[in-house]
Amino acid sequence: MECGGVLMSDERSRTGLPSPIRGGRGPSDGTCGEGPLRTLVPNELRLPLSGWLLRIARGSAGRPALEVHSAAGLLDVSVLSTLSVSPLRGARHSGRAAARWSLAWGQLPPGADLVEVDFRGWRRGVRVQAFTVAEGFWVAETGGRFRTVTCSAGTTRVTTRLARAPRARDGGPDAE
Prior knowledge:
Elements: E1 44-46, E2 53-58, E3 64-70, E4 73-79, E5 90-93, E6 101-107, E7 115-120, E8 125-129, E9 131-133, E10 137-143, E11 148-153, E12 156-161, E13 163-164
Parallel strand pairs: 5-13
Antiparallel strand pairs: 1-2, 2-3, 3-4, 5-6, 6-10, 7-8, 7-11, 9-10, 11-12
Region (Disordered): 1-34
């Protein structure tokens, strides 16, 4: 089953959120039906907590590319590659905004089919399984503002600090 050509065929949300595919199954609650991850048009996915947009495009040699758009505009472009793949491309948090969220994204390394993501704060942490996008990328989003993120994919483990999300251009809800 596909949803706008973006999501993998076994559409199980690995973020703990219900699946965006009708009839899909979310791992945490067992519910079925439309979930909070929404496709707007083919090859686009809107994240429920941050409101950020993921787009699937084509890079050089026709390879899939993931575009990450924040309220401030295009933030990252990752073209699928098998050479020196770091599974973690970026990580952001909401800063001082009223709605607190943390987000990480990256590329699946060769041979890895799932990514576990640990968001850690000063006093607490949360572990989620990332949601696979376009069979080569992943994204994980959770409520709360965290300080670091560790992603584990296959034999690779990478840790980094989350940066504050850039301010919205128009002074919208993400602006401080």
